[in-house]
Design a protein that fits this description.
The complex is a heterodimer of chains A (606) and B (307). With 606 residues, chain A is of the alpha/beta class. Chain A contains 20 helices and 23 strands. Chain A has four domains: 209 residues, Pyruvate-ferredoxin oxidoreductase, PFOR, domain III (Pyruvate-ferredoxin Oxidoreductase, domain 3, 3-Layer(aba) Sandwich); 183 residues, Thiamin diphosphate (ThDP)-binding fold, Pyr/PP domains (Rossmann fold); 70 residues, no CATH class; 118 residues, Rossmann fold (3-Layer(aba) Sandwich). In chain B, the strands form two sheets. In chain B, strands 2-1-3-4-8-7-10-9 form an eight-stranded mixed β-sheet, sandwiched between helices. A two-stranded antiparallel ribbon of chain B has the order 5-6. Classes of the chains: A alpha/beta (606), B alpha/beta (307).
Chain lengths: 606, 307
């Protein structure tokens, strides 16, 4: 929680005199998954999106069906919000276990607001401030004395609205839209609980209220959503009309959304009998001439590997989404990890080159999905998108994409192919001719996973194999030459330390860089969205820094380096490259990155 | 013959012939291929609309030998791949070919589900009771006692009953034929192709190298009995009562339990809607609901809800 440097300029929110200005705040809600605390977070995030505030959320959900302890953390701010926050400024504790497990996550001087019907805090803890509110009984009273305590989440949202002087009218509108479909009764009860929370004299017990500043309004429309949803609309914008999948956490919401959305676009998503069937059906769509998608999480991607190798060999376009979770095996279904990078690049038998991309935040899930579709079709190659569990469920607000410029209407190209058409020409890029295409030569192509000649005939000729391996490799390299050099944030001319990241660690790495630079360190960062092939300019950039530090959420392995660091060291032979690894199933905290830099740079000085 | 551009060329066996098959001389699959050419000659689909798919195995080399759009896929997964083609391209005629290992063993799960979903395509299984391409291992249809390189003292695992598996799977057209009976093969293949939905034909196709004489018992030229299923003609004659009603599931299952070599012809057929039809209905309803909006408008509308 940072105090704002300048006073609030153009908020429509009614701020009582004397409210303390805040630039940002990290609020953690801790309860059980069935309390609907995700709803509080989602509504706050949407409000932030509509108030020119930055927002980033973080949640944990138990992987059991019947629920259990769960948290939802919202980081709201008027400046750049890059991480869900290391520590919370406010903790809303619903139960004793919520209090016990999360009191340690509060910053020194933070506020613990607890349900006095359930929680007995250790008031001798002078590190934080305690504010008790009988959340359960007050909610039950507000809703007319039913036995159930449902609605507590809306009561707490009302409290939050009062504590941070948020725009009640805007929130009421958002609540109305969120619950409107469920019927008037639901909206009425939600609003009763919300208003009871809003009217609760929280200022009397808390002593002060806070004015969470509204950001600079860019004048552009913003949308608020989670990573999996953003990815779906990127796929749709990129021209995906067909796909197939099999349910697995945390990929399922992508396939659920595609299953219900695609028919509106005239397309279709198939729930297959297993992961092998899913990737095969998706390849059938691709062979039929469509931009097709399949996806899964680690265990399912492992199962798809043979067919992915086929896609490389047969040169079929396919977009494959891997929402990474903790591995190996069934691993940690609802935790985050970046341990599938090597699998994405190398995970099939034989030399099977493919393209691997990773989005850096929720907004980027949209753009990278769209880009994956373009690359797959242009280069007739499988493209893997490595997103992760943190991005999948995290909510962010971002500028609405330019729909008119972004949306591609896919066209089936069945124009007759000329006399000299060959399915796998040696002298040019393979362009798949889908069935239904008349062949002027009268010869029809066979798409195949056996090594083949230009016509698709099986060929075990040693020279032929070598040529075809090179053909499949060279087109991926040709794509690599088109990747723009990533920007260095910080000292473009070089300096002491360059942080290099990929995927969802973008935010905490950038925040660590800002914090380090504020403290006078020579610290810069660079983010890689294209992981295979790598952008060409990296080697030269790395050579300008004394240390190239790669924070990754995977294991340092037998040889002491994480997966990206291993690749970069092998590619650039630069001993300055070193890893900061972690495998606790949680996202990077800024302080962990800074501590990692400290450890690596001081070790080097010895 | 006229070469006028306005007149579409007749689809001939010659036009459909591609690479010379790599099968061993005497292999039953040659006759299956020849029958397929002849049926296509009769049905005259536009050449470019024919699509031939297979997995891995001797018989799965089929796509190389048919001059049509084709795809030679990985082991056991021809059906889900063919489903993707069929479901997204109603203009195509989709054929999948394979053997007993590809269909009943490694691809067994896909067979169940493609049948259950009733995806509109035709699947021809050339069953030779042995793994031929890998040179004589026990297959899921090898009978008990069959000596192979993986069962040197004779197979001990109970083989599957292919016809029972197919009828029970929910396939809406199930037939059985024999590679030495070309006319019969052609007749059931044609009916299978014209059936709207998932149609499957099991063909006993001898491997003369690794399981010679396996199907002599059903070959009249080898003193076997090629017994045909007599289908009901619905002609109100007393003898019609005793004939097989192809829509009767219990009767079809009873046929599957007959002793080797059993009977040949159509075991089962029904007109349950295909997945293609059901999905298309959902698509049509969804398009009507959004008033045929463009992708751009649909995405813009969704983004408006996220504001």
């Amino acid at each position: 929680m940072k105090a704002a440097e300048i006073s609030n300029q153009k908020s429509s929110e009614a701020t009582p005199p004397g409210a303390q200005d805040l630039q940002d705040a990290v609020i953690r809600f801790a309860g059980n998954s069935q309390d609907g605390i995700q709803t509080i977070g989602g509504l706050l995030a949407r409000l932030a999106g509509r108030s020119a505030r930055e927002v980033m959320t973080y949640m944990t959900i138990p992987s059991t069906i019947s629920g259990g302890p769960s948290i939802f953390q919202v980081h709201l701010g008027s400046g750049e919000v890059l991480s869900p926050g290391d520590e919370a400024d406010f903790l809303f504790a619903f139960y004793q276990h919520s209090y016990d497990d999360h009191i340690g996550s509060l910053k020194d001087g933070g506020v613990c607001l607890y349900d006095s019907d359930h929680v007995e805090p250790d008031l001798s803890n002078s590190r934080v401030r305690f504010v008790g509110v009988p959340i359960t009984t007050t909610t039950i009273e507000a809703l007319g004395g039913g036995a159930k305590d449902r609605g507590k989440n809306m009561f707490v949202l009302g409290l939050v609205t009062a504590v941070f002087c948020l725009d009640r009218e805007k929130l009421a509108g958002i609540i109305d839209r969120q619950f409107g479909r469920k019927g008037e009764d639901v909206v009425r009860n939600a609003m009763l609980a919300f208003d009871a929370g809003f009217a609760y004299p929280i200022g009397d017990t808390l002593g002060e209220l806070y004015n969470l500043r509204v950001g600079e309004d860019s004048g552009k429309e913003r949308i608020t959503t989670d990573g999996n949803t953003a990815l779906v609309y990127g796929l749709l914008a990129g021209g995906v009309r067909y796909g197939a999948g099999y349910p697995i956490t945390p990929w399922s919401t992508i396939m659920e959304t595609l299953r219900s959305e695609l028919p509106k676009y005239g397309g279709l998503f198939v729930q297959a009998e297993d992961e092998l069937g899913a990737v095969s059906t998706a390849l059938g769509f691709a062979y039929a001439g469509h931009v097709a998608v399949t996806g899964s999480s680690g265990p399912g991607i492992s199962l798809k590997m043979e067919a992915l190798g086929y896609a490389s060999m047969a040169e079929l376009p396919l977009v494959v989404v891997n929402v990474q979770r903790g591995g190996p095996s069934t691993g940690l279904p609802t935790s985050v990890e970046q341990s599938d990078l090597m699998q994405a690049i190398y995970g099939s038998h034989g030399d099977s080159p493919r393209i691997v991309l990773a989005p850096k935040n929720v907004e980027d899930c949209f753009y990278i999905a769209r880009e994956a579709c373009r690359i797959a079709m242009e280069f007739s190659v499988p493209v893997i998108i490595l997103t992760d569990q943190a991005l999948a469920t995290r909510i962010e607000a971002f500028e609405e994409p330019d729909v008119a410029a972004m949306v591609v209407d896919p066209e089936l190209d069945l124009t007759p192919r000329s006399e000299d058409f060959r399915p796998y020409p040696m002298d040019r890029q393979t362009r798949h001719a889908p069935p239904g295409t008349p062949m002027k030569s009268g010869k029809y192509p066979v798409v195949t996973g056996l090594e083949h000649d230009e016509w698709g005939h099986p060929s075990g000729n040693p020279e032929q194999h070598q040529k075809m391996v090179a053909k499949r490799r060279e087109k991926v390299k040709a794509f690599g030459a088109t990747i723009p050099a990533p920007n260095v944030f910080g000292d473009e001319e070089g300096g002491d330390v360059l942080l290099v990241g990929w995927g969802s660690t973008w935010g905490p790495i950038r925040e660590a860089t800002i914090r380090g630079r504020d403290a006078g360190q020579s610290l810069s960062c660079l983010h890689i969205r294209h992981l295979n092939p790598l952008p060409e300019a990296l080697g030269e950039i790395f050579s300008k820094f004394k240390h190239v530090v790669v924070p990754e959420m995977n294991d340092a392995g037998l040889y002491g380096q994480g997966q990206l660091a291993t690749l970069l060291r092998s590619r650039y032979c630069n001993p300055a490259i070193a890893s900061v690894c972690k495998t606790d199933g949680l996202g990077f905290q800024v302080r962990e990155i800074l501590a990692g830099i400290e450890r690596l740079t001081s070790a080097g000085a010895e | 013959m006229s070469t006028s551009a306005a007149e579409p060329e007749q689809l001939t066996k010659k036009a459909l012939t591609a690479d010379h098959p790599t099968w061993c001389p005497g292999c039953g699959d040659f006759a299956v291929l020849a029958s397929f050419y002849k049926v296509l000659e009769k049905l005259q689909f536009p050449h470019e609309k024919i699509c031939t798919i297979a997995g891995i195995g001797c018989s799965s080399r089929f796509p190389y030998f048919v001059n049509s759009h084709g795809l030679h896929f990985i082991h056991g997964r021809a059906l889900p791949l063919a489903s993707g083609i069929s479901l997204s391209r109603p203009d195509l005629n989709v054929f999948a070919f394979g053997g007993d290992g590809d269909g009943y063993s490694i691809g067994g799960n896909h067979l169940e589900h493609t049948a259950r979903k009733n995806v509109n395509l035709t699947y021809v299984i050339m069953d030779n009771f042995v793994y031929g391409l890998t040179k004589k291992q026990t297959s899921p249809t090898s009978p008990i006692g069959y000596k192979s390189k993986t069962d040197p003292t004779g197979a001990i695992d109970q083989p599957i009953n292919p016809m029972r598996k197919l009828v029970a799977s929910g396939a809406t057209f199930v037939a059985r034929s024999h590679a030495t009976q070309v006319k019969h093969m052609m007749a059931v293949m044609e009916r299978a192709i014209l059936h709207p939905g998932f149609s499957v034909v099991e063909i006993l196709s001898e491997c003369v190298i690794f399981y010679k004489g396996a199907f002599d018992g059903a070959n009249p030229r080898k003193e076997g009995a090629f017994d045909l299923i007599e289908e009901r003609a619905w002609d109100d004659t007393p003898e019609d009562e005793g004939r097989h009603d192809v829509t009767d599931l219990s009767a079809a299952l009873a046929l599957c339990e007959e002793e080797w070599p059993g009977r040949f012809g159509v075991y089962y057929q029904n007109d349950r809607p295909s997945k293609n039809q059901l999905e298309q209905k959902w698509i049509d309803d969804s398009r009507a609901k959004v008033k045929d909006a463009s992708a751009q408008d649909l995405i813009a509308a969704r983004f408006a809800q996220m504001k």
